[in-house]
TrEMBL record, chain A:
Main function: The electron transfer flavoprotein serves as a specific electron acceptor for other dehydrogenases. It transfers the electrons to the main respiratory chain via ETF-ubiquinone oxidoreductase (ETF dehydrogenase).
InterPro entries: DHS-like_NAD/FAD-binding_dom, ETF_a/b_N, ETF_a/FixB, ETF_asu_C, Rossmann-like_a/b/a_fold
One biological process term in Gene Ontology: fatty acid beta-oxidation using acyl-CoA dehydrogenase
Molecular function per GO: electron transfer activity; flavin adenine dinucleotide binding
Protein name: Electron transfer flavoprotein alpha subunit apoprotein
Domain annotation Electron transfer flavoprotein alpha/beta-subunit N-terminal: ranges: 4-167
Record's keyword terms, sorted: FAD, Flavoprotein
Binding note for cofactor: Binds 1 FAD per dimer.
Binding site for FAD: 211, 236-237, 250-254, 267-274, 288
Pfam families named among the record's database cross-references: ETF, ETF_alpha
Automatic annotation (TrEMBL), chain B:
The organism of origin for this protein: Pseudonocardia ammonioxydans
Subunit-structure text: Heterodimer of an alpha and a beta subunit.
Protein name: Electron transfer flavoprotein beta subunit
Role noted for this protein: The electron transfer flavoprotein serves as a specific electron acceptor for other dehydrogenases. It transfers the electrons to the main respiratory chain via ETF-ubiquinone oxidoreductase (ETF dehydrogenase).
InterPro entries (UniProt xref): ETF_a/b_N, ETF_b, Rossmann-like_a/b/a_fold
Amino acid sequence: MLLVLIDTEADGTPGPGTGDVLAVAHATGLAVEVVTTGAVPDGLAVRRVHRLRHDLLTDHAPEALGEALVQLLAAVHPAGLLAAATERGDEVLAQTAARAGLPLATRCLALCPGEPWSLTRVRSGGVLLEDAELTAPVVLATVAPGAAASGSASAPAASASASEAPAPAPDVVEFVPELDPVLARTRVVERVPRAEGVSLATAPVVVSGGRGVGSADGYAVLEELAALLGGAVGCSRVATNNGWRSHSDQVGLTGTQIAPDLYIACGISGATQHWVGCMNARTILAINIDAEAPMVTRATYAVLGDLHEVLPAVIEEIRARSGTVDRPDPVPVGVADR
Amino acid sequence: MSTTAEPERRDVLVCIKRTPAVGARIALTDDGLAIDTRHLGFTMGPHEECAVEEAVRIAESHRAAGGTARVTVLTVGPPDAAEQLRYAISMGADEGVLVEVPTEELDPEPTAASILAGLRSAPDTRYDLLLFGTDSAVAGNAQAGIRVACALGLPMVAGVKGIRFDDSGLELRRGTPAGIEIYRVPLPAAVGVKEGINVPRYPAVTGRMRARKAPLRTVPGEPAAGGLRTVALRRPREDRPETVVLGSGAAAAPAVVDVLAELGVV
Ligand SMILES: Cc1cc2nc3c(=O)[nH]c(=O)nc-3n(C[C@H](O)[C@H](O)[C@H](O)COP(=O)(O)OP(=O)(O)OC[C@H]3O[C@@H](n4cnc5c(N)ncnc54)[C@H](O)[C@@H]3O)c2cc1C
Ligand SMILES: Nc1ncnc2c1ncn2[C@@H]1O[C@H](COP(=O)(O)O)[C@@H](O)[C@H]1O
């Protein structure tokens, strides 16, 4: 039997990555049971849910949860424990592994039981794959986002069992761990909600700029195009390191990994660490003076040329086409919406 | 490592890892076991560079307030990893420890064991704060720091984008899709830092001169294999269609807007 730790959102829905981790767990052929500290989401195709109950587990508490999971492993003896490879999932399973003295494979796409288990994990954000072997009495792993769709997990069996007749409600078993009160030291004590607005992570269109933009002021024209397209502005690490943009705009391995409908990469070369942040965009338009730049050769569409000439022309063309309908008085380019 | 905190002194340890600075396409060695680094430079991970910067800023502000402070950087790696220690010293760290192991790449358990061996080699040194990257650049195991903290009985929070000292210890901030989470942990503590916490400085010439001469302490690591073993690295299949070039310069604008219209975004 495999245990799968799932996060439950405040509204009772399963947290990010739940579908992937369940698909990879089912694909092992082992029975799957779920562990949660919160509400039990509907429609889980599993026969048992272990609900962890403790005052220290009412909000994210990596040490307390890691310790609680060690105790659960000792009580129910699963073959392994999986979680989604979110920041939280990775952190909690590392706490579990450290406390139990077990190895841990993070960011896996597929896991195959055996002696040893074999697995494939994502490296460098996905431009490299690692095949590895895991030798352990209990297998601990986190599952990378997109694993279910990557084809590495033989998901058909899993999706079939999930999509047929509605699954019967699972048995819910409570588990009350014994936790040292000192573990309260690493617990969320306060939250500041995110400001409203188009978020880079979920924007349908992202207009992104790199070294080629040349200055902080140079982003005005990107902001303008993003506003016209209902999108957000992104940037490369060069822009962040030069202080042109805030790190929250950075796309890539150490920034945000996004999957918009359209990614417009202006003056970005397409280094590996940037590429992994935008490679899941449905369409990529590269604007670059260098026809050989990796971003250009990998993009769906490209315009060769100076972004400082191309972008204003594109904005003007958009205004010209829509202007006859709803913008009889064109606003001077570069001043609009600023 | 003893854990009594003296207010007039602040000791910070930063753990960094030497990693190849890979370009747009990653070449692999013939045996498929590693990245072919013959034509590559090396670097430390961006999260770790931010951790070094944060440590140096903490030391600077503590000194400005009249205290003494010391930043130690530690790496587990081959002798060449001294290059990354010296870079950190050129950014303002005070001293470096090279925990020597024969390979560029160790699995997570021996990495943590070797960091601990490095700490044990200076039993009289106590640290108020241990800084790690949330995850390392290429391997991205996201666990070495947590393993070390756990072995030392220290509180650890990863993914941190804000560190502030207050009366009771540290206030830590971490971003989530819903907003910011705040933690308050007592010292000594361990923290996994994320890029974005600061903008790392470029080392000044004086820093580079100092780093060239700075003595590094070398101690043996503990490279015995753990339970996770790399069998092979490979590149995933990429199936992208040929790029459609829409034109050059401003003249391409109508073709671009045709595409935007087709995609339904204008
Ligand atoms: C571990 C690690 C993690 C990293 N994480 C990230 C990350 O999360 N995100 C990230 O972006 N990078 C990341 N990097 C850095 C990455 O390797 C590259 O250095 C960075 O992405 C390059 O940014 P750039 O494309 O803006 O600059 P460059 O590589 O310098 O490219 C600039 C491009 O602009 C073009 N150009 C110049 N002028 C113009 C003009 N006027 N008009 C049009 N085009 C022009 C040039 O032809 C060139 O293609 C990471 C690096 C490491 C080692
Ligand atoms: N070889 C190493 N030497 C020193 N510190 C390391 C090493 N490997 C990992 N670390 C530290 O542990 C963090 C997490 O690494 P990882 O578990 O590989 O993702 C890194 O950001 C470093 O701070």
